[in-house]
Amino acid sequence: MNLTQEDWVSQFETDENAVILDVRTEAEFNEGIIANAINIDIHLGQGFITEIEALDKTKNYYVYCRSGMRSAKACEIMNELGFENTYNLVGGIIEWDGEVVEP
């Protein structure tokens, strides 16, 4: 499900079962992240699938990348793998108005 930044943040902040997932490359991740994000690079191919499958499917995943394209694809993949609640940040981190922190 694609969410605007306002909806993504307001839903995340009230979600006690939330996980923030950054699907950018390690180099991009190291440039700055949304607080508490975990990084699994979608470009890892099967490695991405393997790491995603190890995640808790009962959690709600708030997914972002640079512009929102890779994270939308990541949400599709996660849904195919049985994740019920994945939320894509439309516009990605380049349109992010919130705080960006060091990983």
General description of the model:
The protein has 4 helices and 5 strands, in the order βαβαβαβαβ. It has one domain: Rhodanese-like domain (Oxidized Rhodanese, domain 1), CATH 3.40.250.10. 33% of the residues lie in helices and 17% in strands. It is α/β, with parallel strands linked by helices and 103 residues long. A 5-stranded parallel sheet has the order 1-5-4-2-3. Residues 14-102 form the Rhodanese domain. This is Rhodanese-like domain-containing protein. It comes from Flavobacterium rhamnosiphilum. It holds the Pfam family Rhodanese.
Oligomer: single chain
Task: Report the biggest beta sheet as strand number plus sense, adding barrel if it closes.
Answer: 5 strands, parallel
| H/E element order | EHEHEHEHE
Estimate the mean pLDDT confidence.
97
> Which second-level CATH architecture applies?
3-Layer(aba) Sandwich
Q: What is the class in the CATH system? A: Alpha Beta
Q: Please tell me the total number of domains.
A: 1
Query: What is the count of helical runs?
Result: 4
Percent helix: 25-40%
In CATH terms, the superfamily is Rhodanese-like domain
Strand order, largest beta sheet: 1-5-4-2-3
Domain Rhodanese: 14-102
Organism: Flavobacterium rhamnosiphilum
Protein name: Rhodanese-like domain-containing protein
InterPro entries: GlpE_sulfurtransferase (IPR050229), Rhodanese-like_dom (IPR001763), Rhodanese-like_dom_sf (IPR036873)
